[in-house]
């Protein structure tokens, strides 16, 4: 019970900080998430609302990374497992404890795509000062990969341009 309350508090604080960052200027530039054992950064201007993991209704004859559709605040959203999409693989099984940390990150409404990305864990907000170095995306990386950052602890963070992701033909074509 205390674990759930702590998660709710964290989500509430993140949502509050996200809203403050949007209204007061650019203090934080990215929403940091973990998916499939990797660290990703979503630009705040392209990120939407954060939702707890909701059960998605499976859709037949779709790619393995397409989890189905979910009702999020009265809207119908396609749910995509981010790690599965990046690796072009089926979503890996998650324990009940791991599912408690999972979140759905909706794309910003300006991108005009009712879609939410399933991530394993929220890691907070980041700005440029949180990183020790940066480099362009690796050669051969997907076109939606942006800058690759390294933090002071040596962890690598891959920026994902959500607008470019939302325009990828493979992302838009969920049929198998």
TrEMBL record:
PROSITE patterns: CHEW. Residues 27-171 form the CheW-like domain. Coiled coil: none annotated. Pfam families: CheW. This is Chemotaxis protein CheW.
């Amino acid at each position: 019970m205390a674990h759930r309350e702590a998660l709710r508090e964290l989500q509430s604080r993140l949502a509050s900080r996200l809203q403050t960052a949007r209204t007061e200027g650019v203090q934080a530039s990215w929403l940091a998430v973990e998916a499939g054992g990797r660290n990703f950064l979503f630009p705040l201007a392209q990120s939407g609302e954060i939702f707890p993991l909701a059960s998605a209704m499976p859709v037949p004859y779709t790619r393995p990374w397409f989890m189905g559709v979910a009702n999020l605040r009265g809207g119908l959203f396609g749910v995509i497992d981010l790690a599965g999409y990046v690796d072009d693989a089926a979503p890996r099984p998650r324990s009940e404890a791991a599912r408690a940390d999972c979140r759905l990150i909706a794309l910003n409404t300006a991108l005009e795509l009712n879609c939410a990305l399933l991530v394993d864990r929220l890691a907070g907000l980041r700005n440029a000062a949180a990183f020790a170095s940066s480099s362009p995306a690796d050669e051969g990386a997907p076109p939606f990969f942006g800058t690759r950052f390294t933090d002071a602890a040596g962890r690598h963070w891959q920026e994902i341009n959500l607008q470019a992701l939302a325009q990828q033909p493979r992302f838009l074509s969920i049929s198998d």
